[in-house]
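Handout, page 2. Input:
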Amino acid sequence: MVKIFGASTVFWILFAASQAFKIETSPEYRTIAQIGDSLSLTCSTTGCQSPSFSWRTQIDSPLNGKVRIEETKSILTMDPVSFENEHSYLCTATCGSEKLERGIQVDIYSFPKDPEIQLSGPPEAGKPVMVKCLAPDVYPFDRLEMDIFKGDQLMKTQEFLEEMEKKSLETKSLEVTFTPVIEDIGKVLVCRAKLHIEQTDSVPKERETVKELHVYTSPKNTAISVHPSTRLEEGDAVTMACSSEGHPAPEIFWSKKSDNGNPQLLSGNATLTLIAMRMEDSGTYVCEGVNLIGRDKKEVELIVQEKSFTVDITPGSWVAAQVGDSVVLTCAVVGCDSPSFSWRTQIDSPLNGKVRSEGAKSTLTLSSVGFEDEQSYLCTVTCARRKLEKVIQVEVYSFPEDPEIEMSGPLVHGRPVTVNCTVPNMYPSDHLEIELLKGETTLMNKKFSEEMGIKSLETKSLETTFIPTSEDTGEVLVCLAKLRNGKLESEPKQRQSTQTLYVNVAPRETTIWVSPSSVLEEGSPVNLTCSSNGVPAPKIHWSRQLSNGELKPLSEDATLTLMSTKKEDSGTYVCEGINQAGISKESVELIVQVSPKNIQLTAFPSESVKEGDTVIISCTCGNVPETWIILKKKAKTGDMVLKSVQGSYTILKAQLQDAGVYECESKTEVGSQLRSLTLDVKGRENNKDYFSPELLALYCASSLVIPAIGTIIYFARKANMKGSYSLVEAQKSKV
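Output:
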């Protein structure tokens, strides 16, 4: 119970305290205001429904403000703030018998404008100038700091720490002198002012002004250009252009010096144009470049002369005319109203032309120019008492046709060919040059510098030999003729002919393909295909070689087809690749074979003999050449190939084991045929004295073939290996 009562007592005490009479101010303790601004101080209470308020300064001076009460708060407004408001203001609030008081310190300052930058004069390169930075209407100035920068470079800084005698607005300044240079153009001058108005305020109030730095240079290098000339004739026009260097860019003024010494202003433009000049326009003209800091001038003398007439001759002082053509020489006058003309040759020979004069122009026409017209012609013009003469040189040439290209024969790879380049009916030959080119490569060049005896049309040529290759195909052969006629002609007259090269390549790599094979069975088809490389593509000619060596033409197609071959189609077939550069041949041997037929297998004297008899087994195969005869004896353990000679096999003293089936196989490259017979060997009675006359005959016949048997043993061994037979390695038996 004691603890509960104690807690309740504390709660009521805290509640009662929260409802106690209180006073608050805004701003709370201290504020700062700029002179000329408006400032309001607010005093408010809590814990009292009807408080009363009063305001006073701590030194009991006038408030210099207006008071407004709103229920539980009182507002003191100072508008505008002035020096008289820099006090500590006290607000007193009364609630019944309770009185509370709260103070607010009001500090004032003045920093109303950005600083000003002033220069002692226009900044001129190389001359010192003073920069002044002004901070107007500052208070308190003893807390002012000022800096002057040129670009990023600090030029000067200052703090104004002197004591103030009285409260007042003051203008403070910072000065620095420097010498501008051209490199300073485009940089800026910065005047920065900082006012530290509170000890606790780490960031001061700051204002700055930026001014671009213009560095001036006095006008210099003033120059004048005159077109067309400073010496003119009456009626001419002239243009004079003036330029002057400086910063800022100088203004240009044109004037003319007068006799009394006072200049006559003509123009304020850089270009001065005078038209229809008169003699009195002669004189000294002055161009002057002017800017803020100086001026520079330049003079030019113009001389206007009395107008004179001129004579011009066309096409010029020299003209080249081709033999047979027409040329017109024109003499024209400018600046004379009534001229008179005359024409003559320099050696005073006949003109050989027609003269026509009209107004300010005279023409001499030379028709069908010949060698006799190659002279210097003079045109004389008389105007009043003055006389002028112009000369023109006429040179004659002949260059009527393009060069001609001739070759000694068709172009063949690797075969030398002679090329001739001819220039017909030309003059003068000692000015001729001929160049022969293949593509961009010069094959030959020749200048004909020999002296000429008489003036005549001549034909000149150039000849050279080269070896063409297949890579030259498509190249262009160029014959270029140049005729330089006269010393004044910068570029010679040119004519050229071109010929595209087509180099022939003789046939080569002629190849024959036989399908299906060059060895055929009679009645089979065969295709013989031929190809040959060359330029142009060779033509294919098929022929068959006869027994006398001559060739019989068969076809001009690339493929020669024999649909059903016969034995007589066997032979040598020749393919020829032919173009204008040569011939290439290739041949193939065609063999047409007949399959074996009419095979016969016989036993002599009979297919049934007695033991001890001699038996000859013989195999024949008609008239088929290149036939292989293979004799075998059939057995269960495997066939045994017999050592036959010309298709015959002899059994001496037949035994019972010689009985059995014998087989003959006739083979060619295109086929085979089989025949068989059965040999029966019977046992003989036991009579030792018996001797058959037939057996004697067989012995005699056998003695003839025994020497041959030894000869073929080697070949027979190779043909009889373990009961097998090789058609390739066995001896051929032709029947």
